[in-house]
Amino acid sequence: MNLTLDFAGKTVVVVGGTSGINRGVAEGFAAAGAKVAVASRNPEKVADTVKALEAAGAEVAMGTSFDVRDPVGVAEGLASFQAKLGDFDVLVSGAAGNFPALMSEMSNNAFKTVVDIDLMGTVHVMKAAYPFLRRPGASVISISAPQAYLPCEGQVHVCAAKAGVDQITRTLAMEWGHEGIRINSVVPGFIEETEGAERLAPTDEAKAATMAAIPLNRFGTKADIAGMCLFLSSPLASYVSGTVIAVDGALYQGGLGMLSQQLGTMLRQVAGR
Ligand code: HXC
Ligand code: NAP
User: Fold this and answer.
1) Residue of 229, 225, 219, 222 lying closest to 250 (CA atoms)
2) Distance from the alpha carbon of residue 161 to the mean position of ligand 1, in angstroms
């Protein structure tokens, strides 16, 4: 067995790949020699990321702008990647939106916005990419969150949406497995220096409460998540499909309890409840 993670000649598409965790994943594949394409809403973030991917060692790097809530834009964007780079060996679906808010203080549209980005966005990406996935051999990865299986105060929209994402993963593993396509969810824990982490734990106090819930006693890094995505897309994982894999320092064992309490207390104080 070849144990090196060499993605030379492979086409990797990362949706939502222009900042934070997903950009770290795109850069990981670039460093392993892949042809890498990224997409998100902001054209400046796309252009900046393409430059970084080239510098990281991508054989080819490209990008385009679309909103995952727009199925036509997603389909056109992914078709442009396929036209230039060929069928997709790896697809990472990671676009997401999040803000802490209690259900009682959130409009229906606020809840729907997160569902539209995280859950319907995943649907749009999966459906548009399906014709372009390499058969056999494609590795599809949904970037999920602990909220998918750990209830968390102030996160009801994300909890609902990401639980749906994981069920899409499990179900498509059954529907697409017959064509030699594997699909898994990767669940980042609390990843340092990211938008998501800053939104959920903006203060030193909140960060300390979160750290106390992580048995490995450190926050995760973007490289931790990139490593799992490379592993899952390599021959080492050729029999792994339909799984939801946490890369979270055993946060799952401690639960999101402390972060959840912290968020709930803070949001209730603001709401006067
Ligand atoms: C209550 C809020 C709100 C808040 C927005 N809304 N922020 N409600 N509290 N803090 C409401 C708005 O009032 C509006 O409802 C609706 O949500 C849509 O807001 P818009 O600003 O119009 O939406 P949009 O411009 O589409 O932006 C989407 C967004 C934004 C999700 C609100 O924050 C975004 O673009 N986020 C992308 C980046 C991101 O979130 N990254 C973190 C991912 S981390 P009304 O009723 O007024 O119309 C993650 C998991 C982290 O996913 C896990 C860590 C452990
Ligand atoms: P981030 O930096 O905000 O990354 C989100 C990415 O998605 C950006 O590239 C953003 O670019 C894009 N995006 C957002 N909304 C979009 C839309 N409607 N259409 C297209 N692209 C969109 O956040 P992050 O914290 O690194 O999170 C990345 C992923 O990891 C998310 O799936 C999140 O749920 C998951 N996660 C994060 C953590 C954490 O600790 N940070 C923990 C668990 C799970 P544009 O702004 O240009 O659109």
Assistant:
1) 219
2) 13
| Total number of residues shown for the chain | 273
Using a 6 Å cutoff on CB, does residue 87 contact ligand 1?
no
pLDDT band at 260 (very low <50, low <70, confident <90, very high): confident
CA of 234 to the centre of ligand 1 (A): 34
Which CB contacts under 8 angstroms, 24+ apart, belong to 50-59?
A: 52/23, 52/27, 53/26, 53/27, 54/30, 56/27, 56/30, 56/31, 57/30, 57/31, 57/32, 57/33, 58/29, 58/30, 58/33, 58/34, 59/8, 59/9, 59/33, 59/34, 59/35
Residue 1 resides in a domain: no
Look-up: residue for tokens 């401690």?
Answer: 254
Containing structural domain, residue 263: 11-271
**Bridge partners of residue 148, in order along the sequence:** none
Q: Residue 80 belongs to a domain with what CATH number?
A: 3.40.50.720
- Decide whether any atom of ligand 1 lies within 6 Å of the 208 Cβ: no
Q: Rounded to the nearest 10 degrees, how much is the dihedral formed by the CA atoms of 213, 186, 159, 200?
A: 50
Q: What is the mean pLDDT of residues 217-227?
A: 97
Average pLDDT of span 242-255: 89
Residue 197 beta carbon below 6 angstroms from any ligand 2 atom: yes
Distance 17 CA to ligand 2 centre (A): 8
In-domain check, residue 3: no
